[in-house]
Design brief:
The complex is a heterodimer of chains A (130) and B (135). Chain A is an alpha/beta fold and 130 residues long. Chain A has helices at residues 16-29, 60-71, 79-85, 90-95, 113-121, and strands spanning 3-7, 36-39, 74-78, 107-110, 124-128. In chain A, strands 4-3-2-1-5 form a five-stranded parallel β-sheet, with helices on both faces. In chain A, β2, α2 and β3 (74-78) form a beta-alpha-beta unit. Chain A is globular and about 45 Å long. Chain B has a five-stranded parallel β-sheet. Chain B has a two-stranded antiparallel sheet with strand order 4-5. Classes of the chains: A alpha/beta (130), B alpha/beta (135). Chains A and B meet through α3 and α5 of A and α1 and β7 of B.
Chain lengths: 130, 135
């Protein structure tokens, strides 16, 4: 089955991101396809490469980046939600006149259309949030 | 699978205090370009999103409630509101803003977009959907 995933809560504050990660890993292991994960609301905060959690804690961003590398999952961060919360890639940083970008490897910033498209193209859309 | 899916946006949270309602509406507006079969549901505190006379100057955030009245122009013409959620909050349909759309199948007659339905009917609406996005 082709499964799309929406993450709508932020990292470390809320379990949604962790549950989504475990779900995607389990779905892939069971032979399902997970072409895309869409990060919305505070979920976009997963994608900053500047987070530095304590060493004895999981690193949520690095986990997702590894997952994207190993399984080719398309990790899409909503541009409107990202801009509100200070998540920028190189192009957006330049376009907005900011002096830095912070998006982590494996993530890309794109529009909400990617969420709708995911809903159209997958058999199930599973939301992790409140 | 057909190209057109039934999308339902479920709004469960108050319009202000958290960003969910505003960012839900942003998805609806962007999603309209994809020509899917779209409806909105309002339940729990989400029913407050449709109340009339919202005034947000005191909290320093944008009052986005007028945007709901533009949904008809995006072919979003069904706004299901759960009756029990209204009643539990001391609200009636009269407390909601008037949201109309022009029915192209009926000589562009103006019709109300808001449909107050029971909790049981809401369950039926949800059961018919292909994709449910809950905010």
């Amino acid at each position: 089955m082709k499964i799309g995933v929406l993450v709508s809560e932020g990292p470390y504050t809320h379990q949604a991101v962790d549950s989504a990660y475990n779900f995607v890993k389990a779905a892939l292991a069971a032979g399902h396809e997970v072409p895309r994960v869409f990060f919305y609301h505070d979920g976009v905060n997963v994608s900053t490469r500047l987070s530095v959690p304590p060493q004895d804690e999981r690193n949520i961003q690095e986990n997702w980046t590894s997952l994207a590398k190993e399984h080719g999952v398309d990790l899409v961060v909503c541009i409107a939600a990202a801009q509100r919360r200070g998540i920028l890639d190189k192009n957006e940083a330049e376009r907005q006149g900011k002096d830095a970008d912070n998006i982590a490897e494996g993530f890309r910033i794109s529009g909400l259309g990617q969420l709708i498209e995911m809903g159209i193209q997958t058999d199930r859309l599973v939301t992790f949030g409140d | 699978m057909s190209d057109v899916k039934k999308f339902l946006y479920v709004n469960r949270k108050a319009p202000y205090g958290t960003i969910y309602a505003l960012e839900s509406l942003e998805v609806v507006l962007i999603g309209a370009a994809f020509e899917q079969d779209v409806a909105l549901a309002f339940l729990d505190d989400g029913v407050f999103q449709l109340t009339k006379s919202q005034e947000t100057d005191g909290i320093g955030v944008k009052n986005f409630s007028p945007t709901f009245r533009a949904l008809g122009d995006y072919d979003v013409t069904r706004l299901y509101v759960e009756r029990e959620s209204l009643e539990e909050r001391g609200l009636t349909e009269d407390d909601l803003q008037e949201i109309m759309y022009e029915d192209e199948d009926d000589d562009w007659a103006e019709k109300p977009s808001i449909r107050v339905i029971s909790r049981a009917e809401m369950a039926d609406v949800m059961a018919e959907q292909d994709v449910i996005l809950s905010f």
